[in-house]
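Morning F.,

Quick status update on the modeling queue. The single chain you submitted on Monday has been processed. Sequence for confirmation:
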Amino acid sequence: MIRAEEILHPRPEGLYCPLGDFFIDPIRPVERALITHAHADHARAGHGKVLASRQTLEIMAIRYGEDFARETQAAEGEIALGDVSASFHPAGHILGSCQIRLLPKSGPRIVVSGDYSRRPNPVCAPFTPLECEVFITEATFGLPVFRHPDPAFEIAKLLRSMEEFPDRHHLIGGYALGKTQRLIALLRAAGYDAPIGLHGALIRLCQYHISQGIDLGHLVRVDDPSGPRLVIAPPSAFSTPWVQRFKDPVIGYASGWMGIRARARQRRVELPLVISDHVDWPELTGTLQEIAPQEVWVTHGTEDGVLRWCALNQLPAKPLRLVGYEDEPE
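Structure tokens below.
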């Protein structure tokens, strides 16, 4: 029987499948790419052919232009690619995000999870556990110290701050794709029905989510302090003159990394909100126990912690040592 390493292995461009002659989430332009989701550290422009979920393709077109690839194909069902079939399944990370399961004609089934989350997310389909012999997991928060709180608790913290400081704008940093829309949906679920201000860079992707049937309520583009008291902006906006238009704002930032106080201080964040679209330590290890693969491959993150856990649980594991994957570029 063919070994897993012969089905999929790392190359400088990314994970490569010689049986189908394609890459998964390549960081350099390639002839054929399968894309798990549309964050810019996984989805690059310039490939020859791109296979991804319909929503991922549409978001890539918004971000990069309609000609981001020479040819595109929306993933539906099992797709034959040479001597392997690929299928796409929800990852629970952002809208359109998918795990990719590879089914060779002979050999182990491999699931490339991409970035994934096990928390309920109102703006995307939930993670689907898949049977497989090899499971490739991210390790963004792959240490026992990372235990994310309930997002509803963090939203309540934001609303309390707005009550405590009613005369100060609350400017909350959130990535344009996924985090912004999830923040808005969480606020609406908590009963906040007032208009929410948006930095101009966030408008188009929010409009796309609305077009996909996701109710985000009343949103207003904000260019000055005359708009809503609650404003969401990309993190990069806080280092531009845009933020200087607001007098003494409360600066917040929504990220799993806000659980590290030093990171919050580094960014001069007064209101850190620990809201992540990645699995934390209990969710990561719980997923491995639930899926029960024969082998785990670990990528982009603190791989050593996950490898140690696997060793203690007698689960064969190895690091992929892929480079080029970071947080969503701003």
